[in-house]
Amino acid sequence: MQSVVTKQEVILIVDDDSNNLRLLAKIMTNKGYKVLIAQNGINGIETATKAIPDMILLDIQMPNLDGIEVCQRLKSQVLTQNIPIIFITGMSATQSKVEGLTIGAVDYITKPIEEEEVLARINTHLTIRNLQKALAKQNQRLEKQVKEEQLFTKIAERIRSSLELNEILSQVAQGVQQLLHCDRVLITSVTNNHASLEVQVIERGISELVAQTSTWQILYSDREQYPQYQEGYYHSFNDVNIWDDPELKELYQQWDIKAEIVMPIWLDTNQAVRTIKQEGYELPAESWLTYAEPENTQNNSNNLSFFSFWGYLIIHQCNAPRQWLESEIHLLQRLSTQLSIAIKQALLYQEIKTANTELQKLAVRDPLTGVFNRRYFEQQLSLEWRRLTRNPSPLSLIMCDVDHFKIYNDTYGHQQGDECLCQVARAIASCTRRATDVVCRYGGEEFVVILPHTHLEGAVKVAEYINVQVKELNLEHANSPTNSMVTISLGVACTTTSRNSNAQCLIKNADRALYTAKSKGRNRLAVYQPDFNS
Asked: Measured between alpha carbons, how far is 285 from 336 in angstroms, rounded to an integer?
């Protein structure tokens, strides 16, 4: 069995026999273990408590304090109770061995000492010990994950009623006002050091603040101390009347602010950890305080880059000064953390909505040519058909096919073929003028144009214009049997929708007209006027 060794294990040997100590120390040292020795039980306990070895080899029979007593004391101490102990005994009596195992020893070695047996037993129990440590660490990680998930779930439950940012901010501001029984709660966002008021909740009889004032700019945008919020500081004061700065005092008195807390909001869930770490901190009455500066900042100058500063949660007491309690500060810290998560969720929700809108656009667009795809054609034709069924009106369809496109691909390669299709698609799309006209890629080198409220004569004119525009691209097609330049064939069909007809008939007749154009030599258009009443 191989030990899962990640470092040099430390083995403490406790034995009053010098010969045994030397022999065991030599065996252990030769195998790469670090060896500590003690020649009596008292020294063994002291050494074990200070060094916390990975294993203890303990002689049972020692004067004054025997191995049984030493083992009992070690197992009674938190620091040493998990250290595996192997007894060394010269006794063959089963009772003493059982007693040793009963009080916590993991194994025993019988004198005279056999090197292979000693190493095998040590290796086995070190392996077990290392596996136990690894399992304990894994359990700790799992427990931590469970706690974090529970915390997340509780927070998510509080904000699950809405994913709209404005509603979330209003709910949090109202909750703070009710919990702290304060006079005014503000939530502001900050962009380029400019604070914008997002939400304001006030107690009855308290005046609302207007953000578009010089006072607002000085207190929440321009005041030189406030950039410190972006570095992790929050601010609290209990009584504006004790300030020595008469100008600043006057600004606060304009808005009847007697006491204030300004708590920065970071879009960073690690703030929860920073909050917990400070739970025991005793807050001064008046101070700038930081809870965000990580430890060992000299070794990691980029620590603050983990923060994404979003804005402030501001609390005012207006009727009288107020001694802010430590528990209230901690509550606001927790609320700001929950708010940061809610904001992140709301912003993510908005991003998802935007992304879904873009995906919907992509879902109906041909990725190569940029015109609509066949799926959208079928949806749009069905929609137009239902609409025109209610109010009968002509509906025309133009089917287009790039002539001898397989030969074009074989001659110029697929990459050039793709570019040809893109240019043809743009040329076709340029021939439509109305928002209701739809150009789609029908498949391969085929395109289709839906022309609602368009008679056959109008559709023919559009088809002729398309044919001209494609020719004017002047795309070389050297091996084409039809023309030395890229051309297209077109089929035009038109019908007045009625309850006795259907869109598939229109598609089939446009396709028949296209087939006629191709059978007559290509590079032309053909017209088919279906009779749905026959």
From this structure: 21
Question: Beta-strand (E) ranges in 90-141?
Answer: 107-110
- Spatial CA neighbour of 312 closest among 234, 389, 403: 234
- Out of 445, 446, 464, 472, the active site residue is 445
| Number of C-beta neighbours around residue 315 at 10 A | 24
- Cα separation, 425 vs 464, in Å, equals 15
Q: Beta partners for 489?
A: 401
pLDDT at 475: 96
Give the residue from 55, 49, 47, 51 showing the smallest Cα distance to 9. Answer: 55
Domain of residue 481, CATH code: 3.30.70.270
Q: CA–CA separation, 165 vs 347, rounded Å?
A: 7
Q: Are residues 221 and 305 in the same domain?
A: yes
Q: Does residue 492 lie within any of the structural domains? A: yes
Distances (CA, A) of 484 to 216, 396, 479: 73, 31, 7
Q: Which one, of 102, 118, 98, 160, lies nearest residue 26 by Cα?
A: 118
The rounded radius of gyration (Å) of the Cα atoms in the chain is 41
Q: Are the CB atoms for 525 and 514 separated by under 8 Å?
A: no
The one-letter amino acid code at 329 reads I
In this structure, the strands spanning 259-266 and 85-89 are: unpaired
Q: Which tokens in the block code for residue 375?
A: 């799926």
Residue in the structure block whose two tokens are 């003690």? 38
Query: Domain range holding 439?
Result: 374-528
Q: Where are the alpha helices (DSSP H) in 364-404?
A: 374-390
d(CA 273, CA 292): 10
Question: Is the distance from CB of 186 to CB of 173 less than 8 angstroms?
Answer: yes
**pLDDT tens digits, 377-435:** 999 999 888 888 778 889 999 999 999 999 999 999 999 999 999 999 999 999 998 98
Rounded-to-5 percentages of helix, strand, coil across the chain: 50, 20, 35
Pairing of strands 525-528, 488-496: parallel
* Residues 434, 293 share a domain: no
What does the alpha-carbon distance between residue 439 and residue 431 come to, in Å, rounded to a whole number?
A: 10
Bond prior to 112 in cis (omega within 30° of 0): yes
CA dihedral 329, 331, 337, 340 (to 10 degrees): -90
Is residue 408 located within the same domain as residue 441?
yes
Counting as low any pLDDT under 70, the low residues of the chain are 1-7, 91-97, 144-161, 222-232, 268-307, 497-500, 529-534
- Consecutive H or E run containing 6: none
445 carries an active-site annotation: yes
Is 245 within a domain? yes
Q: Which helix (H) or strand (E) holds 37?
A: strand 34-38
Q: What is the pLDDT of residue 430?
A: 95
What is the phi/psi pair of residue 88, to 5°? -110, 120
